[in-house]
Amino acid sequence: MRFKPPSTRALLRTGLSATVAIITVGLVNGTSPASAVVNHLPVGAMDSLVVAKNRAVTLTGWALDLDAPAAALSVRIQQDSRVLGSTTAAAPDARATRTDARAATTGGFRFVTAPLSFGSHRLCAYGINAGVDTGKTLLGCKDLVLKDQDIPVGLARFTSNANRRTVSVNAWAFDPNVPRSSVSLQMRFNNVLREIHPANKVNAGVDKKYSVPGNHGFTRTWNLGYGATKICVSARNLGAGSSNPALGCLQVRFAKPVNLNAKLAALAKTFVGKYRYVMGARNPKVGFDCSGLTQYLYSRIGRKIADTADPQRHQFRAITQSQARPGDLIFFHQGRGGYVWHVGVYEGGNSMVAAANEEQGIRSQSWNWWPNVSFGTVLH
After folding, report:
1. Cβ atoms of 123 and 78 closer than 8 Å
2. Which fold has domain 153-254?
3. Tens of pLDDT along 162-218?
4. Where are the domains of the chain?
5. What is the pTM of this model?
């Protein structure tokens, strides 16, 4: 009777885990099979990924071919769709032993990749069939994201001077991948790139603290206009990193200076008709005489002047009428250029504010009724 081999479907119903089954049958004396060998695809799993500081990845797992359990199975590693290399499952692994006792000294594998680029990756391990079939079994895949840890390090410190409207920065930076090289610094003003400069000045403190060679310091001063300005300094990456980290930012606002002349002239007008004239007085509770009023008004804007008219004249710089601005003083002389006996706050044109006399108190009045006057300024 001629022997008819069973179908593949019939073999799978027997509980075999193989995906392909091939029966090789030899006839003994033409009547019965001498042997039957089933070729299985490998089994196993990829267990873990460990990422090193240099972004090299170590993969571990186990793999076994039931058709050759004592042999060290070849395992292929792929990154995305690219083959990275192969290793052998030659280390002892309990899971392989439990699967087949003949695998007591084989089964475990370990593979270390070259450093990977930043971003998302999928790493997969395949067991390569050791039997007749040339197929492979996917042992597992794992996804990982490598974030940029190789970016430059550094710091930017700012100082500002409101009177000069300046901002200064003292910064340092270096790239750990290429520490000997000087990193370029980017300066952004209100989010617009304005300047790029190398951090190539000596900074012995940074070199000593981080044990890096080369020069990594930077200083710069800017003159700014009035208004708000945001200055940010970032370091341009030189090595394996993929970003340019910010080292520091400063938000500064330089306000236009208050026109003290105009402020004083406006303040003087608020005293008109409110306070008495009292000889030698110089405060609102008692009253004011002419020089007491000017002394008090100037004290309100932070300027200290003498308490009588003639010394005040000597503190002020002489100017012409055409140069005078509201808030300057008008001095009344005894004779041309002589002793000053009266003083008032110039308001522009022919007008001034002064403590006139006991009858009139503090009032706005013309100044050109007296022939010998001079103008003086202490504010410009």
Report:
1. yes
2. Immunoglobulin-like (2.60.40)
3. 889 999 999 999 988 888 899 999 999 999 999 999 999 998 888 888 888 889 999
4. 1-38, 43-146, 153-254, 260-377
5. 0.41
